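no rush on this but wanted to send it before i forget. theres a chain ive been looking at and ive put its sequence and its fold in token form underneath. i want to understand how the tokens follow from the sequence so walk me through it. thanks a lot i owe you, the record is right below:
>
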Amino acid sequence: MTKSITLKALADLIQGTIVQGDPETVITGLNSLSESLPGDVSFLGNAKYAAQVAKTQAAAVIIAPDFTERPERIAFIAVPNPTLAFSAVISYFGHEKKSRPPGIHPSAVVSVSAKLNAEKVHVGPLAFIDDDAEIGDGCIIHAGACIGPGVKLGLNCIIHSNAVIKDYCQLGERVVVHSGTVIGSDGFGYEFVQGRHVKIDQVGIVEIGDDVEIGSCTTIDRARFGKTIIGTGSKIDNLVQIAHNVVIGPHCVIVAQVGISGSTKLGSYVVMGGQAGSAGHLNIGDQVTVLGRSGVTKDLPGPGHYTGFPARPLHEGRKLLAAPGLVPGLQTKLKALEARLAELEKRLPG
């Protein structure tokens, strides 16, 4: 059934204030500023899209209180954080999430020594839970997920289809692991002996704090000994590689295709942009932001922004990144100077 909501009810839903427009205006959908149709609501979460407000067909736009370029034909709701507020709009108009009732699917394989309350967890088709695993109440283990021996899941975790949590790893409460991710693979450890790469045993675990979310096809290696640690509240994107004995502090954001080498330690509130990488055995301080495609080769004190390879403080790194673009102009100037010098040399006596 198609949903609709009045402007007033929408403002109440997102705890905003109508600063322009008829409270009884009916909103029937949502979209981006550039793709909205009459009846839709949109939002301005980034100032670089401000010019699109004048062109949008949306009936209403959610804005920050300081945005003043408001065409009369559009209704506006002001909130402190338009991006966050729009999440509530998405929840209202979006598809209802399928409920996952408690119980164990007949095709799932659950060890008799696993500890879980079948009336308080959901285990999907073909999921596997190995010996001595402990599954907290409220957990949802989707189809085909694999929970290894001795694994511990806290309350209300969600393990999506075909994710793998390997031997003895520990997850806190409300951890979300998306499809294809592997937690607890062996760390990449070898010694070159007599012409061969000899594998070094990896006997540690991965420990993940509360409220961590890990995207699809990410790998987090177990420690050689001790723990690889992901701190409370950290968010890890798809296609990330975290090596053995890495420690990621609380509330970090690790974006797609980041690689962090072994035994590197990140403080709290660190951000690593897409395709950034870090060498091993380094310390990255609190509130450091490493911009995309940067390479960290030495310790970075925080707070601060870094870019380039090797990663340098932002103002310095940007100058170095811009330098190659200046070369063609410098070559032209050099050729002109050479021509002038040659002309002057011709004028010299004898």
User: Anything to note?
Assistant: The chain has two domains: 5-93, 103-313. The helical segments are 7-13, 82-93, 314-347. The radius of gyration is 27 Å. The longest strand covers residues 17-20.
